[in-house]
Amino acid sequence: MTSDFWNGRSVLITGISGFLGAWLARTLVDRKAQVVGLDQEPTGALALHGDLEEQVRVVPGNVCSVDDVARALDQSGARTCFHLAGQSMIDPNGRSPFSRRSSSTRRFSGSPTCQLHP
What we know:
alpha/beta, Rossmann fold, disordered C terminus
């Protein structure tokens, strides 16, 4: 992959306001990509990256909603999508981390959204 691969490329990041999403957005913006994010939170970890909030566009929405995902794809014109959205919080006592993991995974992989593009 050449160094200018991301230059001008439209990219959609689900979960852009999370820790990994914000770091990926920072990396892609630094490589001159046009970054749009889909997230339920307006800023989150984006605020930790200086002026990054002004350099990306966040479309508010939920990956469980076909309409929200379609809107984000339409608005971004993305040719590449990084799916990083998920429920990261688990029971503070650690009693049932698998219930959170399965709901996070099921949220995207079992949703009608995935059936749009098998």
